[in-house]
Amino acid sequence: MPLKFVVCTNYYHTDTRTASFYKENDGFPQRHEEACRTFEEALATPVQLHYVGGNKPWNSLCVPKQSVWLSLLWESGCTADFLQALPGFIRKRLERYSLKRFYTKISKRIANKKTK
Questions:
Q1: Which residue intervals of 20-78 are DSSP H helices?
Q2: CB-based contacts of 88-93 (< 8 A; 24+ apart in sequence)
Q3: Fewer beta carbons below 10 Å: N end or C end of the chain?
Q4: Which of 9, 11, 64, 65 is nearest to 35 (CA)?
């Protein structure tokens, strides 16, 4: 399947001049210049964007291509539904990155170092 059908947002941080493209992938030509052109075309006209990792445009700030997601949210007519759900996303995020959780993890690491 050509790369443009699933473009990961972390690809937008790739420097094509220094990238070594996966040689066994049929989606990339063997010559580096042609592979760069194929890669850049996929980035310019993606069919689907895949937001890799835990930072998604609906639960984080400054995610690559977040503006695309926001504009499509607006076009979908679901902006009000998203805004109603937003406090739940924020609450989950705060639970995941709470000071209590941080302190517990640090305490366990210190305890493990003392037992070694």
A1: 32-44, 66-76
A2: 89/58, 89/59, 92/59, 93/59, 93/60
A3: C
A4: 11
